UniProtKB/TrEMBL annotation:
Names of required cofactors: heme
Naturally occurring in which organism (per UniProt): Rhizophagus irregularis (strain DAOM 197198w)
UniProt name for this protein: Dit2p
TM region(s), chain numbering: 12-35
Keyword Ribonucleoprotein in record: no
Keywords linked to the UniProt accession: Heme, Iron, Membrane, Metal-binding, Monooxygenase, Oxidoreductase, Transmembrane, Transmembrane helix
Family: Belongs to the cytochrome P450 family.
Amino acid sequence: MNLFNIQDFFKLCGVILFFYLLKSLYDIIYCAYFGPLSIVPGPKLFPLTRLFISFKQISGQRWKWIQNVAVPTYGPMVRLGPNLVLISDKDAIKEIIAADFPKNFNYIKFRTEDRFDTLFSTIDKSFHKKRRRILSPAFSIKYVSSLEPLMILCVKDLIYKVDECIEKKTFSDGAVLNIVNLVQSCVLDIIGETNFGGKFNSIETLSHPLPGKVYQELRRRAMKSLFPLFKSFMKYDQYLLDLSNELIKNRRQAEKSRVDILQAILDVVKTEESDQITDFEIFDQILEFLIAGTDTVGLTASMAITLLAKNPDKLKLLQQELDNALGNCNDELPKHDQLKALPYLNAVINETMRLWPVTLDGGIGRSPEKDTIINGYMIPARTNLVLNYYHLHHDSKYWGKNVEEFVPERWLDLNNSPKDIFYPFSAGSRNCIGQNFALMEMRLIIASLLFQFDVKDILAQELDIVCYITPSFNNLKYDLVFSKRSFKSINNC
């Protein structure tokens, strides 16, 4: 009798499992081909599972398929997964930004630890509002301006380093230098000085491990999001946690407080309002600043100089503007007040961010909290809506037939520049908190380097960009030839 009952029990379990799998299969098929999103164009098999789009991300080249195949084939709204829709339409993107949809729940998968929210990864609007209010004073124009002397120290080290390499005559016309490594080392030292209490001395050796560690952390977070079942095997690098703990420990033991962003965070932690912020949460926030500060700013500054090297006529125009603005000053390096209003310098930066925005495949996306109509389609609640800023930046309807060319001049007449299609720092309540900081870094690095040095491209190099969360040069490498401008000296800017 007992044996009979056991057999019946397993039969019942088998029947339940069968119907559960049958129901799951029905739900998948219904969602894919009969649900509200079924009329959104897209590859036929992609609505069944997000694995198809996920596998395209492993190599960091998903963005090329999205921009060169998916959007041209299927149009301004493309379904790329069961609940994933890529949106490239200007008006639809504006509508979503205005509606202030929350970030998609997939942001949770990009956290160092799932249980800890950060300014970037939180999907909770109230948490984001509170955390942003806490951190905003450290990124105000006034506070960022107070950090300029620290930035200039690092830029000065960069100029000396390039001078030193040129003196060694590593190439007949100058020094062959990896622009990515060069700029990222400077950005990393700036982040160290202005955020954490001191340079990492990465310019000195051009071989600090931190840029590589940050690059690997980006890959880890991307893989953790794509394959959540394996996230327990994809732990964050202990080096990063140890570095953060050492920074926090040293700062708390310091006799004098210091004017930088870490101190601003620690001062806030002391307040009653935010005394629940743990050291690990501080580490997680610091890691986000490292990623944002080195990867995105490093890419834009490196790419701007690379594009100028590929377009010598544009480089000459920028250097003429710098000569006119800085030629009579007696300071060692230009100050930000001398640079922030220079039309062509800002045009170069804008054009670089247009061609190479910080998200090439739209990023993670936002989700409506209730069913909504977008572009004539009924979008169910919690659908992941990915905003394709890259497409807007590369749409010939708005930018003209030369849309793929590097043309800073298109920014010189702002009255005739396209409106509402340029999103270098995202938009809405979730726009980049550090944009003032980033623009100051980029202006100081680009202007200081190109005022002192000429740069030439080395032909037959492939400009290969990969994107896991943010874009970067593949293998963090692109070589340029640097030579000293004969009539310039670091002691006469």
